[in-house]
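Hi U.,

Before I forget, here's the chain from the pilot set. I'm dumping it here mostly so it's searchable later in email.
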Amino acid sequence: MLRCLVPLVFTCSLGAWTDDETLDKKAINKLVEEYFEHDWKSPEGIAAHRKIIARLDGLPKLSARESKSWRKSLLKVWSRGPKLSKKSGTHHLWEEEERGLFILGGKSKKAKGLFIGMHGGGLGSGEARSSYEAFGSAASGQKWYAIFPEVLVKTELGWTDSGTEEFVMELVERARRTGKIDPDRVYFGGHSMGGYGSWTLGAHHADEIAGLTPSAGAPTPILEGEEVIDIVEGVVPNLRNVAMVIFQSTDDPRVPPEANRMAVQKLKEAQERWGGYDFEYWEVTDNAHNLPPGGAEALLEKIGGKVRNPHPERVVWQPAIDWKRQFYWLFWDEPKLGREVVADLDRADNTVSVTTKAPLGGLHVLLSDDVVDMKKEVVVLVNGVEHYRAIPERSLATLLMTGRYGDARRTYDARIPLF
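Structure:
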């Protein structure tokens, strides 16, 4: 509960917060509490969040000291949210319905990271246990806390339809609470359809991921006849700042190499265009539809030392889902799906440059002391034209809308609208 939050943080400046009689300390506490109660992935939750932020946007700006205190308080409130069981074995996220099956494994105490292992399968098939058996020991060897979810509905695109993607990201959030996981060390991997899942969910949520290990699975290809000519939107652009190891056997009878080869070609083209892209393509000729030589251990070893960079100097974002509204230090209230945004950060000049052909409505640049010098004037350029020049103002609204995820390095003090 947040009943004492504002008095604790603002004992010296509370008067400034009560100028608006409709938002006294009690009202502020209630709004913050309500914000954490709403699901950030659901349409209803997003609508409720918008209303709360609109009210908090009217409050006076924060000092650096006040902002620091709020950060600590919000993270503490987040940490009180739902957690997972500390017992290994099979569980359900929705216990009464016995829905949302997942298996817990790996190291639950003082884990060095979190691994999400995605199983293979397809229409009518696929079980969490297959991924647990394939990756469980390897994840333990890395001293990671490991979760092996089962898709909610067994379809060919099981990891991205029927609510499974939201289910997986809820598990990630609860696991970080339960095991006090470093958010800079979260890894996704999987085999077959699980390779597809780790490619796709890893791209959609790249700002929350340190490394990906898709094996014998690829993002959805675009076909012209029987020829692979491209892959779906919302994958390759987003992977600029994530480490990847992609495994494929050329003689795989179930997942032929063409889709992964096309995806890797697109990664190379993106690398030439935008820089970045830390990836390794591991192709062999005689492994059929199996894990690579050396098994899952060989895969996880390749990404075990990778650490997320939450504040890259270049962000490339091509939104693919409407409820993913924050991506690194960008926020888009209603993301324009399939439209590319490229944002560059020049720390030396305290300048941000955003380039896009997309409509700008709802698009913001997020700022904090980790991104720019908040004491100095910040310049924001949009498509080469100066859009903003000022010292950024810290706000509770921005802290709350970005601090809701319980990720201190993805929490920001100020936001600059680009519209």
